[in-house]
Specification:
The protein has 15 helices and eight strands. The longest helix has 28 residues. Helices cover about 55% and strands about 10% of the residues. The strands form two sheets. The chain has a six-stranded mixed sheet with strand order 3-5-4-6-8-7. It has a two-stranded antiparallel ribbon with strand order 1-2. By secondary structure, the chain is of the alpha/beta class. Helix 1 packs parallel to helix 11, helix 2 crosses helix 10 and helix 8 packs across helix 9. About 5% of the residues have low confidence. The protein has two domains: about 280 residues, no CATH class; about 110 residues. Keywords: Membrane, Transmembrane, Transmembrane helix. It comes from Candidatus Doudnabacteria bacterium RIFCSPHIGHO2_01_FULL_50_11.
Length: about 425
């Protein structure tokens, strides 16, 4: 039943947005399963847990601090001792320390080579760029900044489509100098704001039962046979969520997918772990299924919405490619849609982004200085209208964006006049 309910959400997640979050979610679900195995703690399972943590890190750097904190806390909560040699008087090491070391070594075997590669490339110790970037975008006392990639023309690295393929090359704001008190106050503001956002995202998620799941989790932690397991689940949710509460710059549900799946799995384990008669357990399971399956399966309609627009962008790119077979440097007045079309243009197309100037002269100068060959106009902004009277540019194509997931229904393609 859980598989049926998860089908809608999983397929939507897989097609809605191309980020590593679904990979991280899948790997962490296996990691959580290993830690809840009745045979854990054991050397073998701790090694597997460490390897899974390392794989999650390769997908997304957030897994690095999460694994180190979560696996360490889990091992601290373990009980028992491990004998170095049976039937001897040799000193015994705590079993949880042994398990922790095995897991850490396995994790390091996956993580350290990649950290070394990044550090050599960027000439500094580097485990991932997202943490530094998110910290820069969290302006003290204000809402997060808009990412610089969506405003301005940025030169892509060699043999890449866009500067977004290596966001470390973009300029980011630097926090002003603050006293310790002021800095703590700013972090307090960030935590308060992001905590509210996180609760809203978890409460109104695609699975539609996180709110009930958390309530059930609290009640089950008090009354179920496996109380320690459910307290551990609560602790896992808190640890995972806290990392994003400290660093989140956009309200995006994908950050909390591992938490949502964990809650979903928990909800359907409740009937088996509370003292109820068999018929009541069956009735409770059917109630969960009836309550949650409709919305999840209904969300399958998003598959059409999220895949159909790409056809319109691909058709537009085919028409542009027919008119401009050579490699081009492209700009647009809508960053996301310009990126989509540039991707389908292929060849050696480079997409530089959206001009940041709001004046006609500044707009034209920005295109000229960045050596833009093609401009994609989705909306007739005041600065974009400058191309209509600019003798350096001529409109060559008008393309109807039929079925595209866009507020623009027509694309105008401008080409720089070649001397």
């Amino acid at each position: 039943m859980l598989v049926i309910i998860m089908t809608g959400a999983s397929l939507v997640w897989a097609t809605q947005i191309l980020t590593p979050d679904l990979i991280v979610t899948t790997v962490l679900v296996w990691y959580f399963w290993i830690l809840t195995d009745p045979r854990f703690p054991s050397k073998r399972l701790s090694i597997i847990a460490g390897l899974l943590g390392g794989i999650a890190f390769l997908a997304k750097s957030y897994a690095l601090p999460f694994f180190l904190i979560h696996f360490s806390v889990t091992c601290i909560l373990l009980r028992g001792q491990y004998k170095v040699a049976p039937n001897t008087d040799k000193a015994r090491l705590p079993r949880n320390i042994i398990v922790w070391l095995y897991g850490l070594v396995a994790f390091s075997a996956v993580v350290l080579p990649w950290i070394m590669v990044l550090s050599v490339k960027y000439h500094r110790l580097e485990a991932g760029s997202s943490g530094r970037i998110n910290h820069a975008l969290l302006r003290p006392g204000l809402a997060p900044l808009q990412h610089p990639i969506v405003s301005g023309l940025w030169e892509p690295p060699e043999n890449t489509l866009t500067a977004w393929e290596d966001p470390t090359i973009l300029p980011y704001p630097v926090w002003p100098r603050l006293s310790v008190t002021d800095r703590l106050r700013e972090y307090g503001y960030i935590i308060e704001n992001n905590s509210q956002v996180a609760l809203q995202l978890i409460q109104y998620d695609l699975l539609r039962f996180s709110q009930m799941g958390i309530i059930l989790l609290l009640l089950t932690a008090l009354f179920a046979r496996l109380r320690k397991l459910y307290w551990w689940l609560l602790l896992t949710i808190v640890i995972y969520s806290m990392g994003y509460i400290l660093t989140m710059t956009t309200a995006d549900p994908r950050y909390f997918w591992p938490v949502l799946v964990l809650i979903a799995i928990f909800v359907f384990s409740v009937p088996e772990n509370i003292p109820l008669r068999k018929e009541y357990k069956v009735a409770l399971t059917l109630l969960f299924f009836a309550s949650f399956s409709y919305q999840s399966l209904r969300d399958l309609r998003y598959l059409y919405w999220f895949t159909e627009p790409s056809t319109a962008y691909q058709e537009a790119a085919d028409k542009i490619r027919s008119a401009y077979p050579l490699s081009s440097r492209v700009a647009a007045d809508n960053w996301k849609e310009g990126l989509y079309i540039s991707f389908f243009l292929g060849n050696t197309t480079q997409y530089l982004g959206v001009p940041s100037s709001n004046t006609n002269d500044g707009f034209s100068h920005e295109l000229t200085s960045s050596r833009i060959d093609i401009f994609l106009r989705f909306f007739k902004t005041e600065s974009g209208k400058a191309l209509d009277s600019d003798t350096a540019w001529r409109q060559t194509l008008k393309i109807r964006l039929t079925g595209a997931d866009s507020s623009a229904h027509e694309l105008e393609v401008f080409e720089r006049n070649r001397l």
